[in-house]
Amino acid sequence: MDWLYSLFVEHSALQAVVVLSLISxxxxxxxxxxxxxxxxxxxxxxxxxxxxGHLGLSIxxxxxxxxxxxxxxxxxxxxxxxxxxxxxxxxxxxxxxxxMLALGVVLIGTLMAVLGSFLTGISLPDMxxxxxxxxxxxxxxxxxxxxxxxxxxxTSTPALGCAVTYPLGVVGVILAILVLRKSMVxxxxxxxxxxxxxxxxxxxxxxxxxxxxxxxxxKEIADLSYAKFVISRLxxxxxxxxxxxxxxxxxxxxxxxxxSEKDAAAMTVLFGxxxxxxxxxxDIDWDAIDSKLISQRIxxxxxxxNGKKLGALHLRNHYGINITRVYRSGVQLLATAGLTLxxxxxxxxxxxxxxxxxxxxxxxxxxxSLKEPNLVAVFIGIILGLILGSIPISFPGISQPVKLGLAxxxxxVGILIGTFGPRLHMVTYTTRSANLxxxxxxxxxxxxxxGLDAGAHFFETVFRPEGLLWIGVGFVLTLVPVLIMGVVAxxxxxxxxxxxxxxxxxxxxxxxxxxxxxxxxxxxxxxxSYATVYPLCMFIRVIIAQVLLMFLLGS
Length: 555
What we know:
This protein has 555 residues and is of the alpha+beta class. It folds into two domains: 2-194 and 388-553, Na+/H+ antiporter like fold (Up-down Bundle); 196-369, 2-Layer Sandwich (Alpha-Beta Plaits). It is built from 21 helices and eleven strands. It has a five-stranded antiparallel β-sheet with strand order 4-3-6-1-7. It has a four-stranded antiparallel β-sheet with strand order 8-11-9-10, with helices on one face. The radius of gyration is 27 Å and the shape is elongated.
């Protein structure tokens, strides 16, 4: 039985893989179980790691550090890659407001920690460790430990403070979200959130009665309007055509127009009269509208089209078809000439069957090719993210330079590559399932290592009087700032609940709570707002951990 003992106990690369896999399997299995209708999901991996550490299981410290770091990097990079396409647009649509609200969470928690140190007698280094655990922010803990080493002070107790408060730091944010949801949020609020979005397209039928556009071409009319639109079909004298940019519009023409929802009223002013038929229902049979034309959704799969402008393809003039809508990452976009195509975009094509078939050859529509993994972009992104995270940034009054670290650097690069990669003809497309797999694998590794490391002295610290005090203080530092800013964001600032939860999870650097929010709240708003506020909040928390210690202890 020596082989079995060495497999689980004796430190080796094989033993590390076995132990971490065992912890992850048990934790993920428990995550499927619901308690009082609530499941903590992947968070149970962390608790399973604590229990394993308490029972005496351990792995080589270098292996532990590697697996923990690699897991965290994979998770945050995949998250950045997923939300990248919608990150900057969301920032324009309210990202400044979200970041200000998130900074409110950070500042309230920090002020409470400083006051708590004076009121409870907990030393400032220990309080910083407690704050890092309450906000589930291990990069900030690492920064604090580096600062303490520089000051010649003990670094182990802050780490222990982080470990004992970390579990309730995870649970506290989830609990706060539950309290906010039960006390303030209705089903109607969630339904509205699902249907919101400036990118949502609107389809309407209009009759041309505006003398100002009589006998003008489609291009001339488009130049007259500030609002962007696409004319999908034109009916005249009982015949339907696909209008090109040179098509002359005459009085009495019927037009099927696709525009953004916010510009629907402007279309009525532009063309003259809107028909009352609802063209936005999901059950419309577009092929039955007219016998001559068909509507088909085609996927962009040819790599050479990645990063090209839609207008540069001249599909309408060359093939006599119209592109009415573009679907990307679950978001419906207006098919304007300036839209940059990405691999995986789904284009709705309207035209004659033969013409649509020819366009299909141009765009690819080879869905199988998208399922091939593109790991080059992933590894390049990780390298660039780690380089960015390693760059020292100096601030006045702080002797030790600050770094974005393992978490901040990769998520920033992931966002940038996800957004701008296609414009540089860099293929960044990954299927949703592949992205979810990367994120789940990375997060499981990270939590298993974190729990295993903290578990050895966890219970003995918890049951000491000071341990119980630390836990109580940490829970308050988690719960109070989240509840305060959650109420302010939802009730006062009127932010949708999905974005509020993502903002709260991002401000607390809590991917486990984000996982819970994504499972219980429809739409991608939690993930997008998480990524919107996460880089700034992570950076600020890393700075604050160092500033507090240097300014209050360094003198």
